[in-house]
Design goal:
There is one protein chain. The longest helix is centred in the N-terminal third of the chain and has 23 residues. The strands form 3 sheets. The protein has a 5-stranded mixed beta sheet, sandwiched between helices. It has a 3-stranded mixed beta sheet with strand order 2-1-9. A two-stranded antiparallel ribbon has the order 6-7. The protein is an alpha/beta fold. Helix 1 packs across helix 2. It folds into 2 domains: 59 residues, no CATH class; 139 residues, no CATH class. It has 6 helices and 10 strands; from the N terminus they run H-H-E-E-H-E-E-H-H-E-E-E-E-H-E-E.
């Protein structure tokens, strides 16, 4: 049986109609007011009969459509164009917006490029909600800048010093001192209107020595299943040795 070709029907952009009527309303007001100022006559001709009204309406419509496209595109995934609620910050400090699927893919790709020794704290975000939680990398040079040196400086130093030999899981070259889900807990700070912070300073577990690929297998499910949005950017590796840790801002 030969299937007939279905004719393609073009969809009229009905969502643009409000832009046109809004623009036409603005144009009528502008033309009517300018006519009154010029003639000082309260009897104003029908603005719809004046070409300038339609020229202004067309200009306003195009401007509103361009602004709408720019605003919408700024909240789309930079890869697939779907709604993008997660933001990644790269080593050059630039950010990109992604849907969750492509954010995970991009995080994985960039994580596997890391050549330095690093400390990784399990995200523990799978039960969290909202847009104030994130997962960030801090280089050794930035621990002082963000007042983290006294809190976790010793943990980071000990973790980095413990990295040697082969990955405990796959026997590839080890790069990561990894602290898993049971190594810390979130603690409420600042009273009833406060926030949660990971009690990293209380970690007394021994780090597991792994490669980057095996660590990804452990941390990606937590990032993928985070019930909120990473509007506060997930910060990727930059500037040498350091630590990945979860945070609430």
């Amino acid at each position: 049986m030969v299937k007939g070709n279905k004719s393609k029907q073009s969809k009229f952009p009905w969502s643009y109609i409000p832009f046109f009527f809004l623009s036409l309303g603005f144009s009528i007001l502008i033309v009517a007011f300018s006519t009154f100022l010029r003639t000082h006559n309260t009897h104003i001709p029908n603005p719809l009969g004046i070409p300038l009204t339609w020229i202004l309406a067309l200009g306003f419509s195009l401007s509103l459509l361009i602004i709408e496209r720019l605003v919408i595109s700024s909240f789309k995934c930079s890869i697939c164009g779907r709604e993008g609620k997660d933001v990644l910050r790269y080593s050059n400090r630039k950010t990109k917006r992604f849907c969750r699927t492509h954010m995970i893919d991009e995080f994985k790709k960039e994580f596997l490029k890391i050549q330095n020794k690093i400390v990784v704290i399990y995200p523990k975000l799978e039960e969290k909600r909202g847009s104030s939680y994130t997962y960030q990398y801090y280089s050794l040079s930035d621990l002082k800048k963000y007042n983290l040196q006294e809190i976790i400086g010793d943990l980071v130093t000990q973790g980095l010093n413990s990295i040697s030999g082969a990955c405990a899981t796959c026997k590839a070259d080890a790069q990561v001192a990894y602290f898993g889900a049971d190594s810390f807990r979130w603690e409420h700070k600042g009273g009833s209107a406060g926030w949660e912070l990971p009690a990293i300073e209380k970690i007394n577990h021994t780090a597991e020595i792994l490669c980057t690929r095996c660590v990804l297998d452990l941390i990606l499910p937590s990032l993928r299943n985070f019930k909120g949005n990473f509007e506060e950017p997930v910060v990727l590796h930059y500037a040498g040795e350091g630590i990945f840790l979860p945070w609430q801002v």
